[in-house]
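Why does residue order matter? Because the sequence determines the fold. Keep that principle in mind as you read this record.
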Amino acid sequence: MTAVVLASASPARLGVLRAAGIDPLVAVSDIDESAVLASVALDPPDVQVGVLAAAKADTVAGALHADIAADCVVIGCDSMLLIDGELQGKPDGAEQARQRWAKMAGREGVLLTGHAVRRVTSGLPTAGAVGTRSTTVRMGVPTPAELSAYISTGEPLAVAGALTIDGYGGWFVDSVDGDPSNVIGISLPLTRRLLADVGIAVTDLWRSA
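Structure:
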């Protein structure tokens, strides 16, 4: 069976794949995200997150150990929140998380996740596909005490836009329009289509019952 490599340190993405029947290996890329973003700063936001995802997947695909890279598929993702025309990644710290929530509470933003799939055969990249998924997220209005408690969990410091729906942050998200798995960090429908684009059926990657 083709091995699956997740080019991400995100436990949420890993959890989504595991819950959907895939047990990937994890290999974290060491790309300079700021430098990559700077190189595409004039491109549309959906292109920017796609480029980041591709950079992660390409870096991991090129550095895999031979016994893994002989036959595998690498999945790279990157998520950012688009609000007021600006892309937001993970906050730099608690104060920036608080500032972001003060700005976005009661409003809506668009969670963009870039996805890149790279097929590796006999140790060499043979096919690739990239796509971006968007989901509209409507934020609630946490009280000051609730926001302080949320920030103290550390969760909003580790996620794009300082929010997620699969943990403590779910209490403060009123609704989403679109693919909820995309908000968590990896869109299952888009990933399935990208896998098909490189000649892999997602059902062939499912663990045995």
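The first strand starts at residue 3 and ends at 6.
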